[in-house]
Amino acid sequence: MSGAVSVHHGAFGRAALYQLDKPIITHAHREAHLIFYIDSHKANVNVCDEAIAINENYGAAVNPWQPHSFELSNGPGVCMCLVLYIKPIWFLENSQSVEHALSFGTAKIEMTKRVREWVFRLTSLLLDDENSELFDGFLYETTRQCFEQSWRGNKQVGFMANARMHYVDFRVRRSLRLMKERFTDDLEMDWLARASGLSRPHFFKLFKKQMGITPNLFLNTLRAEQAIEDLMVTNKSVTDIGYDLGFSSQASFTRFFASNVGIPPSEYRRVAHIV
């Protein structure tokens, strides 16, 4: 069964050392995302339509809200990987430059000597499973190295892509507000489309064009984020958390959580802590 060695939460977002033996379905995060191979079985990260083999030579970078999935390569096994979820506002505040708005220029990250050094420093802190004043600095430097590499040779394009304002159609904004208000309900997509003033096909097409993901993936992201928060900051049982999020049973909630986050909710609660 997939599990976690350590999970740290902080102002930066999340950092986890996972041991994964099952695929993770297509999902998304509002944070930027970095995935590095550490040991054992190799794996692939599919970012939009690009397959990235994570191994000793390459890691994967995922921008906020980019759909992605994870799968083992070459049959069954266990992949130990370092997984980072970095809040864009935290990175921006620490970089002190608008040019460093967190959007990677490429999904494939080369494991250069510098990147490898910072990845293994972070991994060592997670393996020690202790709070450290060094953690935020190590995580920022790891992210910075990957960010700068991803735009190397194309810095002007990177700056313009980061600086560009993202316009969202008012009907999509209405659907976003409704989903944020009612994501614990059993929302029907037909109802959501009508409430947004669109037919179902037009709604799905416009939402995907504007947001880069489907409305179903957006809803799943909201539910997964709320589940993680409840596991971290409340004493509610896993069963109650699942019921509060609209799942009919603990089993269905556990399947949802494991397929979107990578490990079961009880395992996540056992190892995760705030730094």
Q: Helix-strand pattern, N to C? A: EEEEEEEEEHEHHHHHHHHHHE
Strand content: 15-25%
Q: What fold name goes in the CATH topology slot of the largest domain?
A: Jelly Rolls
CATH class of the largest domain: Mainly Beta
Q: Count of DSSP E strands? A: 11
SS content category: alpha+beta
Q: Unreliable runs, pLDDT <50, ≥5 residues?
A: 156-165
Q: Tell me the Rg in angstroms.
A: 19 Å
Main sheet, how many strands, which sense, barrel? 7 strands, mixed
Number of domains: 2
Q: What is the CATH architecture annotation of the largest domain?
A: Sandwich
Helical run tally: 11
What's the end-to-end separation, in Å? 26 Å
CATH homolog superfamily of the largest domain? Jelly Rolls
Mean pLDDT, to the nearest integer, reads: 90
Shape: globular
Which range best describes the helical content: under 10%, 10-25%, 25-40%, 40-55%, 55-70% or over 70%? Answer: 40-55%
Widest beta sheet: strand line-up: 10-7-4-9-2-1-11
Can you give a write-up of this model?
The protein is an alpha+beta fold and 275 residues long. Helix 2 packs antiparallel against helix 3, helix 6 (189-195) packs across helix 7 and helix 9 crosses helix 10. The protein folds into two domains: 3-163, Jelly Rolls (Sandwich), CATH 2.60.120; 170-274, Arc Repressor Mutant, subunit A. The longest helix is centred in the last third of the chain and has 19 residues, at 215-233. The chain has a seven-stranded mixed β-sheet with strand order 10-7-4-9-2-1-11. It has a four-stranded antiparallel β-sheet with strand order 3-8-5-6. Helices cover 46% and strands 23% of the residues. Residues 156-165 have low confidence and may be disordered. It has helices at 88-95, 113-128, 135-151, 155-163, 170-182, 189-195, 200-211, 215-233, 238-244, 250-261, 265-271, and strands at 3-10, 13-20, 24-27, 32-40, 43-47, 50-54, 58-62, 68-72, 79-86, 108-110, 272-274. 32% of the residues are buried.
